[in-house]
Specification:
The protein is of the alpha/beta class. Helices cover about 35% and strands about 15% of the residues. It has a six-stranded mixed sheet with strand order 6-7-8-9-11-10, with helices on both faces. Strands 2-1-3-4-5 form a five-stranded parallel sheet, with helices on one face. Strand 10 (about 285) and strand 11 form a beta hairpin. The structure holds manganese (II) ion (MN). Manganese (II) ion binds near residues 28, 82, 126 and 156.
C-alpha cells in the first residue's frame, strides 16, 4: 500500500502508461482511466484498455485523447483503476496478470494483486482519489477531465443518494463543477434518459404487477415475449428490478425474469429490516442485504409459489407477518 505522494511520483516517472478498466465498465472505472490518461498525455504515450465494449453514453470521455499506441517493444507502466480483483479484468487478465504496477481503488475488498496499491475504502468513488492525485501531480484539470471525474462520483453514489456519499464526495463534485463539469447534463444522461425499448419493456413489466402479503410484497414478471414485443433485452432490466420496491408500503420488490431456456431469474430488492440475501439463500442464490438474486428452474406457477414461500419465511422471521 502506498500513499498519494508515492503514487504521484510513480506516475510522473513513467514514460509509457497503460490504464486498465474493469470488465462491464461503469462511469467510475472509465472516468478515472480517461481522466488520468488525459492529464498525463503530454510528453508521454498513454493508452486506455477496456476488456468490454464501452457504452455510448461514455464515449465523450475519450474524445480528444491522442490515439498514440504504446511503442512496440517498450514495457509500459500498467495502472488498474477501480479494479478490486484481477478476475475483473476479463480478457485483459491473461496479458496483464502479475504485470500491474499500480492499482488505484476504493473497494475495501481489494485483493492487493498489484505491485503497489493506492486504496481508500472510505471514498465513495475511485474518482475522488484520482481528483486528489491530479492535484498532487499539479495537473491541469480541464473541463473534460472534470466531466470524467464528476461522472465517476455521480454514478458510484447513485446521483449522490446512496449511503456511501460523504462530505468529501460533495466537496470534490463542487470543485469539479467549478472546473467546468456539466453536472446537470451528465446526471440527465446517466439517471434520466432511457431508451424507447426500455420504456416499452418497463410498461409491459409494470402491467404484470401484483401485490402479496397485504401489500408488503410487490412482484413483476419479465417474459421472453416482453423482450420481443419491446425490442429490449436482459442488459436493460437492472433498473426495472428496483421499481417494485419504490412503491409505498412495499418491503420486498421481486422481479421474475424468464430465461431463454424457460427457467426464471429472481431479482429481489428489500427495505430494512428484510434481508434479500437470506430470501435468495433459501433458493440457492445470494447477494447483498438489500439486493440479491437466485435462479428457479420450475415452470411459471411453481416458480412464483416457491419464491413467495421464501419471502413469507423472511417476513415471518422479521415479524412483519404472523406465523400460521
Ligand atoms: Mn468505483
Amino acid at each position: 500500500m502506498i500513499d498519494m505522494a508515492a503514487a504521484a511520483r510513480l506516475l510522473t516517472e513513467a514514460r509509457h502508461i497503460v490504464f486498465l478498466t474493469h470488465a462491464n465498465p461503469d462511469g467510475d472505472t472509465l472516468g478515472c482511466a480517461f481522466a488520468l490518461a488525459q492529464a498525463l498525455a503530454e510528453g508521454r504515450h498513454v493508452q486506455v484498455l477496456c476488456p468490454d465494449t464501452i457504452g455510448e453514453s461514455y464515449h465523450f470521455m475519450g474524445a480528444g485523447l491522442p490515439e498514440e499506441p504504446i511503442p512496440a517493444g517498450s514495457a509500459p507502466f500498467v495502472v488498474a483503476v477501480d479494479v478490486a480483483d484481477i478476475c475483473l479484468l476479463g480478457d485483459l487478465r491473461q496479458v496483464y496478470e502479475n504485470k500491474i504496477d499500480l492499482c488505484i481503488d476504493h473497494h475495501g475488498s481489494n485483493r492487493l494483486f498489484a505491485k503497489h496499491t493506492l486504496l481508500e475504502p472510505e471514498a465513495a468513488a475511485t474518482a475522488e482519489l484520482v481528483y486528489r492525485l491530479l492535484l498532487e501531480l499539479g495537473a491541469d484539470i480541464t473541463h473534460r477531465i472534470a466531466d470524467c471525474l464528476f461522472a465517476g462520483i455521480s454514478i458510484d453514489t447513485g446521483c449522490f443518494r446512496y449511503a456511501n456519499t460523504t462530505a468529501q464526495s460533495h466537496r470534490i463534485a463542487a470543485e469539479l463543477i467549478g472546473l467546468g463539469a456539466r453536472a446537470a447534463e451528465l446526471n440527465q444522461i446517466f439517471f434520466e434518459t432511457k431508451t424507447r425499448s426500455y420504456i416499452a419493456l418497463e410498461h409491459l413489466a409494470m402491467d404484470s404487477l401484483r401485490f402479496y402479503f397485504d401489500g408488503l410484497c410487490a412482484l413483476i414478471w419479465i417474459t421472453q415475449e416482453m423482450y420481443q414485443q419491446s425490442g429490449s433485452h436482459e442488459a436493460e432490466t437492472d433498473h426495472i428490478a428496483s421499481r417494485p420496491r419504490q412503491i409505498e408500503g412495499v418491503f420486498v420488490g421481486a422481479t421474475l425474469k424468464e430465461r431463454p431456456d424457460g427457467s426464471f431469474r429472481a431479482s429481489l430488492r428489500t427495505r430494512t429490516p428484510l434481508d434479500a440475501a437470506a430470501i435468495c439463500g433459501r433458493l440457492g442464490g445470494g447477494g447483498h442485504v438489500r439486493a440479491a438474486g437466485c435462479t428457479i428452474k420450475k415452470p411459471r406457477p411453481e416458480a412464483e409459489a416457491v419464491l413467495l414461500e421464501a419471502i413469507r419465511a423472511e417476513l415471518e422471521s422479521a415479524r412483519l407477518v404472523g406465523a400460521e
